[in-house]
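Field log, afternoon session.

UNIT: design team B
ACTIVITY: writing a sequence onto a fixed backbone
BACKBONE:
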């Protein structure tokens, strides 16, 4: 009887662990029109994996995520900065877009010009692209 209870408790604990592991993972950005993950650690093995509609589940199955990217038709920059305790480090204008490079509380980072950057926001006429640590592959 004692063995049966112990086995039942072990099975219940295992089921609970599996349930929590199967829940979608929190993504770096919420409410995006489209979503992608940057995978790989060098330009040789880099790939962008689209995850529209199921980003939380996709994050569970990818093992080599090195960044995340979201696109928005409208985006509240000030609200985003506040949410991540972010600070704009520098900006640049390229091909009709304005790019903000931000240090803040996000899971990915790169060093640019001696500064830790956790996010890039690219503001264009057609919308906004946000990535952590930066936008890879183009705007």
């Amino acid at each position: 009887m004692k063995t049966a209870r112990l086995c039942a408790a072990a099975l219940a604990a295992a089921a609970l662990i599996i349930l929590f592991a199967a829940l979608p993972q929190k993504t770096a950005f919420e409410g995006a029109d489209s979503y992608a993950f940057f995978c790989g650690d060098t330009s040789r093995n880099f790939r962008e994996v689209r995850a529209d509609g199921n980003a939380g589940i996709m994050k569970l199955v990818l093992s080599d995520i090195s960044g995340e990217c979201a696109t928005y038709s409208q985006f509240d920059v000030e609200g985003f900065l506040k949410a991540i305790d972010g600070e704009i480090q520098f900006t640049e204008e390229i091909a009709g877009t304005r790019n903000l490079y931000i240090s803040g509380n996000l899971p990915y980072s790169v060093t640019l010009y001696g500064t830790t950057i956790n996010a890039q926001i690219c503001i264009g006429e057609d919308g906004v692209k946000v990535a952590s640590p930066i936008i890879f592959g183009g705007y």
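LOG NOTE: Helices lie at 2-22, 55-61, 77-83.
NEXT ACTIVITY: expression trials, pending approval
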